[in-house]
């Protein structure tokens, strides 16, 4: 048997390929083309999507020209996305005749044949009247059953003469980057419009709320698509189209949808009670960076670090401390810090949960009972300030650190109860400067251990060096808010 070299194989493959291309098409029947799949899906699903229009009192400025939509920055609040890309129609400059009412257009989809419709909260915000137009041009007045501004979801109810076609929920947790999707809505008020694309990213944070977990897609989404459904190729709703980012106001292939895994339980709450109740533990958290993980002895950056604990909260009652890292919540691992607020919010009040906490180099299990989140809860009263004074300093970690005196309290407007070592200088081009530390910041602890004197701070830094750490973890307080900073020991 003769051996065949790679070049010979290459020529043989090319020859075979050229011969196969010359064969008639009947030799290998084609699979169902995407066009047929999309056409079948569109024909089946377009009937569950509705046009939503609202009428509301126009603001006083409506009698004057409204400027063209401005381009938001990537970190802009989500209502800026809504206003610029989906919301009310403005004028084009000049002087308009008085307009006592303003209308806006959006989309929605039917989730129950009795007439329950899901849309975005911003589509019906401040509306005096909500009108739903079905795919057959039937027009119905809608009642707002409930809304949740935090996740920008709303539930409407219409009274149809006959049962309506309804969409089914899919599981967005199974969605992968690269999966095909269809978006159906009413861009620019044109009526049912179908676009296709892929999932570009999952778990996208656009800084709109603590619960951001958006699906990102390149399917064309434009003004008026808000509240419309995003379907997978099984015809299930895996997202609610909510926002786009665009320098022009039109689609450039960066759209965001609320995932069904987040939306579905909220819609169920709105259906049952007309409102959303969220869990709360009273711990303010921050991400765990690689430097913080090394400083506290974690194997890698994971979990959510507690920066502060609200008094009389479930976290305080469970004796959670600033500097603790929550590694898991009721058995669910926390890989990214922003997973924790969502898990807590989804837990019904009075539910007992177990947390796995990293403290002093080891895991500790803590149990607490979830409380109901009260957005109007008053902030704890600030302690009364007092007079300041002055003492010895040390230079370490790129910082000049000074014992806190009444003079320094007065200089930096610190309360009487403040304890720690105050930063009075920050070296230029140091790691401390890169972390935005500044004079007046108060170092209150090294890891979990409080420090009130310079010698205590030096001892903790020396111990970290002795234990082979490359970074030391400082708890720094500014204007009543605290966070943890990991600084390299080489600068000390």
Task: Note down, in words, how this protein is organized.
- The chain has three domains: 33-63 and 72-276, Thrombin, subunit H (Beta Barrel), CATH 2.40.10.120; 279-372, Pdz3 Domain; 393-491, Pdz3 Domain (Roll).
- The longest helix has 17 residues, at 6-22.
- The chain has helices spanning 6-22, 34-45, 78-85, 121-124, 260-273, 290-296, 314-317, 339-345, 406-411, 431-434, 454-466, and strands at 49-57, 101-112, 116-119, 129-133, 139-148, 153-157, 180-185, 193-204, 214-217, 229-231, 237-244, 255-259, 279-280, 283-287, 304-309, 325-329, 332-333, 352-359, 362-369, 371-372, 393-396, 399-403, 421-426, 442-446, 449-450, 471-478, 481-488.
- With 492 residues, the chain is α+β, with helices and mostly antiparallel strands.
- Strands 21, 22, 23, 24, 25, 26 and 27 form a seven-stranded antiparallel beta sheet that branches. Strands 1-2-3-6-5-4 form a six-stranded antiparallel β-barrel.
- The protein is built from eleven helices and 27 strands.
- The protein is elongated.
């Amino acid at each position: 048997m003769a051996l065949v070299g790679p070049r010979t194989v290459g020529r043989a493959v090319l020859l075979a390929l050229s011969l196969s291309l010359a064969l008639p098409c009947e030799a290998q029947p084609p699979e169902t083309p995407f066009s047929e799949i999309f056409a079948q899906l569109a024909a089946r699903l377009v009937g569950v999507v509705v046009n939503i229009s609202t009428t509301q009192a126009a603001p006083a400025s409506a009698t004057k020209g409204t400027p063209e939509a401005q381009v938001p920055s990537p970190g802009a609040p989500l209502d800026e996305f809504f206003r610029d890309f989906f919301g009310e129609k403005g004028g084009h400059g000049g002087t308009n005749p008085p307009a006592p009412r303003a209308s806006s257009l959006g989309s929605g989809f039917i989730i129950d044949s009795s007439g329950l419709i899901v849309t975005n909260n911003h589509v019906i915000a401040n509306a005096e009247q909500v009108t739903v137009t079905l795919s057959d041009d039937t027009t119905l007045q809608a009642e707002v059953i409930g809304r949740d501004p935090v996740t920008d979801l709303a539930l409407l109810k219409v009274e149809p003469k006959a049962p309506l076609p309804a969409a089914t929920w899919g599981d967005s947790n199974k969605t992968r980057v690269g999966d095909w999707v269809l978006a159906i809505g009413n861009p620019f008020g044109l009526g049912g419009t179908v676009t296709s694309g892929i999932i570009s990213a999952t778990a996208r944070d656009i800084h709109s709320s603590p619960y951001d977990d958006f699906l990102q897609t390149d399917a064309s989404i434009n003004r008026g698509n808000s509240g419309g459904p995003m379907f997978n190729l099984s015809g299930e709703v895996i997202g609610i189209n909510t926002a786009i980012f665009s320098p022009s106001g039109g689609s450039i292939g960066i759209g965001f949808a609320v995932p069904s895994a987040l939306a579905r339980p909220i819609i169920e709450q709105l259906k049952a009670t007309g409102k959303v109740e969220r869990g709360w533990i009273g711990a303010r958290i921050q991400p765990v960076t690689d430097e913080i993980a090394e400083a506290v002895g974690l194997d890698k950056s994971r979990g959510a670090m507690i920066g502060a604990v609200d008094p009389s909260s479930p976290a305080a009652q469970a004796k959670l401390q600033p500097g603790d890292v929550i590694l898991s919540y009721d058995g669910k691992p926390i890989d990214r810090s922003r997973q924790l607020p969502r898990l807590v919010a989804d837990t019904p009040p009075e539910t007992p949960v177990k947390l796995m906490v990293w403290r002093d180099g080891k895991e500790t299990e803590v149990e607490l009972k979830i409380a109901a989140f009260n957005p109007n809860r008053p902030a704890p009263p600030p302690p009364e300030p007092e007079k300041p004074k002055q003492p010895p300093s040390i230079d370490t970690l790129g910082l000049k650190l000074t014992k806190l005196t009444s003079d320094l309290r007065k200089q930096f407007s610190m309360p009487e109860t403040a304890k720690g070592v105050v930063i009075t200088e920050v070296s230029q081009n140091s790691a401390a400067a890169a972390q935005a530390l500044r004079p007046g910041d108060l170092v209150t602890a090294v890891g979990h251990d409080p420090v009130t004197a310079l010698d205590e701070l030096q001892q903790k830094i020396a111990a970290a060096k002795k234990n082979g750490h490359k970074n030391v973890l400082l708890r720094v307080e500014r204007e009543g808010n605290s966070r943890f900073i990991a600084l390299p020991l080489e600068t000390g």
